[in-house]
TrEMBL record:
SUPFAM superfamilies: Nucleotide-diphospho-sugar transferases (SSF53448). Coiled coil: none annotated. CDD domains: NTP_transferase (cd04181). It holds the Pfam family NTP_transferase. InterPro entries: Mannose-1P_guanyltransferase, NTP_transferase_dom, Nucleotide-diphossugar_trans. PANTHER family: SUGAR-1-PHOSPHATE GUANYL TRANSFERASE (PTHR22572). It comes from Nocardiopsis sediminis. Transmembrane segments: none annotated. This is NDP-sugar synthase. Residues 11-232 form the Nucleotidyl transferase domain.
Length: 242
């Protein structure tokens, strides 16, 4: 494990998958290129990573890879980007392992992001937490917000009111990670790390969770695109006036 306090300089983004639940947006583009508030998801991610000192990002893709390649080639700023194309679907764990093969040789840890996540929280604090815990992998955790309304009801059946889409006292995998290099070889060549690598690391006490204090949104459905496209301009307007 790395004991350095230096910023983490490299990251991988998983931008493969056909994202059928996002159609028709993904009929012509990969999920990472779906526009939210008039910008592709991956542009938000690259900007966020660069703002915290990341200068090299490996993007692993497959479906509609040429769209992503053209977009990256046209970018004029931000971190250096290495694009890797999967010849066949590898699953999320396999894609992570494959993407990590494109990182610069180093013993330092790296960030990893799912390509359908929009979030802003301090990555330097995330890295410090990871190093303090001394594990092999640290997951960012987002508080679970239900899409259902909650009925406030007393024991005798009297309804006192309703709460729409509250935050619940549970935490979910936010799709943002820090990996030590030694963890990469524990990932499956093909398959899902959440059903193999992560349970094994948890059993060994080498997997930790960092609770996010900030905006997080997974973009999995057409409804998510529409709601996030309303949330982000509002968030940025509040930030400008704060």
């Amino acid at each position: 494990m790395s004991g350095s306090n230096a910023p983490i300089r490299q990251a991988v983004i998983l931008a493969g998958g056909q994202a059928t639940r996002l159609r028709p947006y993904t009929d012509t583009r990969p999920k990472a290129m779906v526009e939210v508030a008039d910008r592709p998801i991956i542009d938000y991610q690259l900007e966020w990573l660069a703002g915290h000192g990341v200068d090299h990002v490996v993007v692993s893709c497959g479906y509609k890879a040429e769209v992503l390649r053209d977009h990256i080639a046209a970018r004029g700023d931000g971190p250096e980007i290495t694009l890797l194309v999967e010849d066949e679907p590898l699953g999320r764990g396999g894609a992570l392992r494959y993407a990590a093969s494109g990182l610069r040789p180093s013993g330092d840890p790296y960030f990893a992001l799912n390509g359908d996540v929009l979030t802003w929280f301090p990555l330097d604090e995330f890295a410090a937490y990871h190093r303090e815990k001394g594990g092999l992998v640290t997951l960012a955790l987002a508080q679970y917000q239900t899409s259902w309304g909650i009925v406030d009801v007393t024991d005798d059946g009297t309804i006192e009111g309703f709460t729409q889409s509250p935050m619940l006292p549970f935490w979910i995998n936010a799709g943002v990670y820090i990996f030590e290099r030694a963890a990469t070889e524990l990932l499956p060549v093909k398959g899902d790390h959440e059903s193999s690598t992560f349970p094994d690391l948890a059993a060994e006490g080498r997997l930790f969770g960092y609770r996010i204090d900030g905006f997080w949104r997974g973009v999995d459905t057409v409804k998510d695109v529409k709601e996030a496209s309303e949330q982000i301009p509002a968030l940025r307007a509040r930030a400008r006036t704060a």
